[in-house]
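step=encode ok
step=design start
structure_in=
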């Protein structure tokens, strides 16, 4: 059971890291080329469609599977593997704190704003991208740590 949980931890974390990396390296640079009204509309639509069942399952799995892999006992797991899983879980948890404390409030403000698109974008884009870079780095590190634990 512990091996399956670690595999699910690696899989869910890898999916989420890939999603965030594509956002950082492809989607946000493409959106940066849009006009202010286009950018605001596009981000609003993305924020409406991303948090659905598949995304939320992966998002929750990024915490649940590493936690389960850490707490379910497995004979033969080395101390190094245990610490790698715990470190991966900590990075994933920090990622979620950045997302919930940084990106989500900005998404909510963007959705509710009735200001001119240029002002809305100015209040959103740079800050959102900053939080996004941090959470992408954290979840990529979590993926690396969990992968290391799985292959040792």
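sequence_out=
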């Amino acid at each position: 059971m512990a091996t399956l949980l670690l595999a699910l931890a690696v899989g869910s974390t890898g999916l989420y890291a890939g999603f965030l990396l594509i956002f950082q390296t492809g989607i946000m640079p493409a959106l940066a080329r849009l006009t202010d009204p286009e950018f605001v509309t596009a981000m609003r639509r993305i924020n409406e469609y991303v948090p659905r069942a598949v995304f939320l399952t992966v998002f929750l799995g990024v915490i649940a599977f590493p936690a389960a892999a850490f707490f379910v006992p497995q004979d033969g797991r080395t101390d190094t593997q245990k610490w790698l899983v715990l470190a991966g879980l900590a990075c994933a948890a920090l990622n979620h704190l950045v997302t919930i404390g940084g990106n989500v409030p900005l998404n909510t403000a963007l959705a509710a704003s009735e200001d001119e698109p240029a002002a809305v974008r100015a209040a959103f884009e740079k800050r959102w991208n900053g939080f996004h870079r941090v959470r992408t780095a954290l979840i990529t590190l979590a993926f690396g740590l969990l992968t290391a634990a799985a292959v040792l």
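step=design ok
step=annotate ok -> Helices lie at 2-31, 36-49, 53-71, 79-112, 117-151.
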